[in-house]
Specification:
heterodimer; A: mainly alpha; B: Rossmann fold; 6-stranded mixed beta sheet; 30% strand
Chain lengths: 287, 359
């Protein structure tokens, strides 16, 4: 035992870690410090989702472009040509594609994060880590698709000779708002899904209805002025208007609307976090 | 700083058995809340009879560097203790204190994804078990070396044999180096040679001054790793003493139980041959590879129906197309006497050992 070389196990024991495990009481704190401690796992899980997304597909990552592109074509024919919806002087294809980008990111992130806990049953019942990592990671996994599809948008902007103004610097803010919106709904639904499997069936309808409530095929200026504040309760309205403003230089119908969108998201997000933390204690027993 | 690494005090865990727990649909929740609006708020605590205590007032302490085995029949509360200590679930009452970084291994290969390559799975699994990226980088070669799959590192795991899969998974897990290690029965993996290697690795881990909590039915393994053991029965701590003492008490209580073994669909003999394989965990015949079960009355159930009259093990296995049996780790194997693959007829088999008499 007179080992001179440093013994790793004795140095381990001197660590300060002290964990207390007790029955849950009252409202759980968010414990962001612990969440940060697990940030590597967050990236590993997101990376796994990205890796697996197009495994064993012939077209691979091309799907990330094809999905919004094909939707754009359909919308351009039906809403742009046949219904002749106004697009405020912007060529209709790029008008709708600019909205489809954040929308598809949102819809993917929302669907993925809502189902994430059920899809990770084996992890939840066998290993400990802050469960928030799971919906967070599945939200993050959609960003890769967004980046790929965004390249196409840049090409389209060049084709239509649209030069972005300095407003483009605000784009990350609207991107963040889209992700936060998806996450806000996603953590609510994922926590509910542990007990109520209905969530799996609600989500497809939810995203479908939500899409029509978002100015993707049409401009938000079509909405009568009186209704705009109510319309702003849909955070994706703010996101889509923000994208069109930052990239295409379109006028923002109402700054207040975006403000309302942001507040709605924050309220849902923070309440979702607390609800999730509250339910988390039972996940392993119920799932 | 405390002398203790683990301090468990009056730990209790209550589970609900009722229908209201798992997979409740929204409709049921809504209708029940309409019937009794107030119940919505405590839907989890509705009826009393559907509850049971998986753990009931368990207290013990473990010093730094001590290795303790947790012994008990299926359903005695072993897994619940491990789940609480690894923070997967919360206790209903009581308190646990862990002094030091804890890591747990409740299953080999948690989070393995078959579409990913061996290399990718090492990183993913490592991260899930709580290793940092740098830690995995550092131990990567060692992990690969131990698993013996270096040739297939960049092959998706779905193309691995089940043995390779398990070896890789164990290797990642074995290189987790927390101060307090919580392990469920993970030794019963791979072929005999790899099991020996695993046990060696575990001995090395426990010998390194680490605090270990180890759940197993394998007497040899527990005796080799732990000086001290805890016996649980129906959620209560019955005995806390030397491993030897605890096992002798454990074996003496086995008479009262009927043991069921389910045919494992993955019926492969350690030597690669096809066999009827039954999981014996929960049934201590450790250390006696050909003797004990043939004294007992055995019933074989095929899809829930009894196969043949209860005879001695030898007769029954002959009648049902099973040949010689042997026992390996926690599994009982019957070789297939007429060379048919027992998995091929798609039926469920259960072996029951009733009124086990001990000599």
């Amino acid at each position: 035992m007179e080992n001179i070389s440093p013994n790793p196990s004795t140095s381990l024991i001197s660590s300060e870690a002290h964990i207390i495990i007790e029955p849950p009481r009252g409202w759980a704190a968010l414990d962001l410090k612990e969440l940060w401690h697990y940030h590597e796992l967050l990236f590993f899980l997101a990376w796994r989702d990205v890796k697996l997304r197009y495994k064993q597909t012939v077209l691979g990552a091309a799907w990330a472009i094809l999905q919004p592109l094909m939707t754009m074509v359909v919308f351009s024919v039906i809403f742009g040509q046949l219904a002749n919806l106004p697009s405020e002087g912007i060529p209709y294809p790029i008008f709708t594609y600019t909205a489809l980008l954040p929308w598809q990111l949102f819809a993917f992130a929302l669907t993925n994060s809502s189902n994430s806990l059920i899809n990770s049953q084996n992890l939840i019942s066998k290993v400990y880590f802050p469960r928030l990592i799971i919906p967070l990671a599945s939200t993050l996994a959609g960003v890769m698709d967004f980046v790929i599809a965004f390249m196409v948008l840049l090409g389209m902007m060049a084709y239509y000779h649209i030069v972005p103004t300095l407003a483009i610097l605000y784009l990350p803010l609207f991107l963040l708002l889209a992700l936060l919106s998806a996450l806000a709904v996603g953590i609510w639904l994922s926590a509910l899904s542990v007990e109520y499997r209905d969530v799996r069936y609600i989500v497809p309808f939810l995203t479908q209805f939500w899409m029509y409530a978002t100015p993707i095929a049409y401009a938000s200026s079509l909405i009568p002025g009186d209704w705009r504040l109510l319309y702003g309760l849909n955070p994706m309205t703010g996101v889509v208007d923000g994208f069109r403003w930052a990239l295409l230089g379109m006028e923002i119908q109402s700054g207040l609307m975006i403000g309302i969108s942001a507040i709605v998201v924050l309220v849902m997000f923070i309440s979702g976090l607390y609800y999730f933390r509250q339910m988390e204690n039972n996940f392993a027993d119920v799932i | 700083m405390s002398d203790f690494a683990v301090r468990v005090k009056n730990l209790s865990k209550q589970y609900n058995l009722g229908v209201h727990v798992a997979n409740l649909t929204l409709r049921e929740a809504i209708t029940s809340s309409l019937r009794a609006p107030l119940k919505w708020f405590n839907i989890r605590s509705n009826s009393n009879e559907s509850k049971f205590w998986a753990l009931d007032d368990v207290s013990f302490e473990i010093k730094h560097g001590e290795a303790v085995g947790i012994i008990g029949h299926n359903g005695a509360g072993k897994s619940t203790i491990l789940k609480i200590l690894s923070r997967i679930t919360k206790p209903t009452r009581g308190r646990v204190e862990l002094f030091g970084r804890a890591g747990s291994l409740l299953e080999v290969g948690t989070g393995f994804h078959t579409e990913l390559t061996g290399r990718e799975n090492i990183y993913l699994n490592g991260a899930i078990l709580g290793m940092s990226r740098r830690e995995i980088d550092r131990k990567f070669d060692e992990i690969v070396d131990f698993s013996g799959v270096e040739k297939f590192l960049d092959t998706p795991v779905k193309h691995y044999s089940s043995g390779m899969h398990v070896r890789l998974a164990f290797s990642v897990a074995a290189h987790l180096e927390p101060e307090i290690l919580i392990i469920d029965e993970v030794l019963a993996v791979g072929d005999a040679e790899f099991q020996k290697k695993c046990l060696g690795k575990m001995t090395e881990i426990t010998g390194g001054g680490r605090t270990v909590l180890f759940v197993s039915h394998n007497q040899d393994a527990v005796a080799r790793l732990c000086q001290r053991a805890i016996l649980l029965e129906s959620g209560r701590l019955i005995l806390d003493g030397s491993t030897e003492e605890v096992f002798s008490q454990y074996f003496s209580s086995i008479d009262r139980l009927n043991v069921e073994m389910v045919l494992d669909p993955d019926g492969v003999m350690p030597d690669g041959g096809v066999a009827w394989k039954f999981d014996l965990s929960g049934f201590p015949i450790s250390g006696d590879s050909h003797g004990s079960p043939n004294q007992s009355k055995i019933v074989i159930l095929e899809d829930g129906k009894k196969l043949g009259p209860p005879h001695t093990l030898h007769e029954t296995i002959r009648q049902n197309g099973m040949g010689a049996y042997s026992h390996w780790g926690t599994y009982l194997y019957f070789s297939s006497s007429d060379n048919t693959d027992p998995r091929s007829n798609g039926r469920a088999y259960i072996v029951k050992l009733n009124q086990l008499s001990r000599d």
